[in-house]
Amino acid sequence: MRWGFNMDFKKDQTLDCYGMLCPLPIIKISEKIKGMKEGEVLETLSTDEGIKEDIVAWCSATGNEYLGLKEEDDVFKVFVKKRAD
């Protein structure tokens, strides 16, 4: 397993978005992160390749911190840290 980014964090919650196409993963991430505490990390599992660009744009627009993405067996694992309100 090789990570392309620093994994010095722990994930607090995982969101399963297998089989969902754009924009559903982003909508689900937006809903899920609203219920999380400031600074918590959400891992999202997605099979939609569009998540690679969409998550960066969504984080930029919302102020949440994009921590990185890992591709493994056609599944994209995306990590986002909830911003302070």
From TrEMBL:
It holds the Pfam family TusA. PROSITE patterns: UPF0033. It comes from the Bacteria. CDD domains: SirA_YedF_YeeD. Transmembrane segments: none annotated. This is Sulfurtransferase TusA family protein. It comes from Candidatus Zymogenus saltonus. Residues 15-39 form the UPF0033 domain. SUPFAM superfamilies: SirA-like. PANTHER family: SULFUR CARRIER PROTEIN YEDF-RELATED. Belongs to the sulfur carrier protein TusA family.
